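Please review the protein record below. Tell me whether the encoded fold seems credible here:
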Amino acid sequence: MKPTLMILAAGMGSRYGGLKQMDPFGPNGETIIDYSIYDAKRAGFGKIVFIIRESFRNDFEDLFRSKLEGEIDLEFVAQELDDLPDGFELPTDRTKPWGTAHAVLAARYKINEPFAVINADDYYGVEAYKTLVDFFNENQNADYSVVGYRLKNTLSDFGNVNRGICYSNSEGNLDQIVETLKISKKNSDGFGEYQDGDESKLLDPNTLVSMNMFGFMPDFFEKTEAYFVEFLKERINEEKSEFFIPLVLDKMIQENFKNIKVLSSDAEWFGVTYQEDKPYVVDRITTLIKDGVYPEKLW
């Protein structure tokens, strides 16, 4: 059975100033998502599940069905604030999405096979998808995985970013993933800098960080839903609380539920957090086309 690629595309792009998941970056109007799907398809993925918002469903579906219908199986699932477990009601003042782990749960009735999770606005590189397909083929439903990127390949010149720092043990399994907020680029060597309380701390350029590219098995849904219940019991009334994937993985590690393999990647990651990132991304895609990594017209 071919694995599925889940694309988290429900963000509103507040720092970018619009729906960056639908913004064109390629010479024929290709989005970053188009390049991700192209890479996933040729690596061996068989289905795409988009996590979106109902408010822009029609425009989003029209855009991607027009390109991809007949190329690969497609599903579109809305992440909605009121999609909560039995016994919980949405607080009246809640407007913020519940986070990336909640977004994954939105597809719990659509996926029964191994699946990868990525962000809609991030480019991960051709090799990353091949690495995940190899992982699925080798692990026979036993483990999960996170693709770790070198910090120096993931920082923006135009503002700070959030990254999940990966700590692994001698066997290459994840010990801890720490969501670290507001990391800025310190210098051209790729050092990162962030505030820990009143203290400024540096991060080595080769620190492995998660860019929200994961490999999961279908049992991820059941366990994550149970953790979401725990989360809501404690934090449902916190207006800005978020249920992140790293939080779920940390709990799984603490309970010895799964081995989570850290799959290291030296690939150059790029994405768009700020509008100022766009020219760089357009330039990188143009170079990749010139180098023969992609055809000028994908579909």
Remarks:
- Residues 50 and 76 are 5 Å apart (CA to CA).
- Helices lie at 32-43, 57-68, 100-105, 126-139, 220-235, 245-254, 278-290.
- The longest strand covers residues 174-185.
- The chain has seven helices and 13 strands.
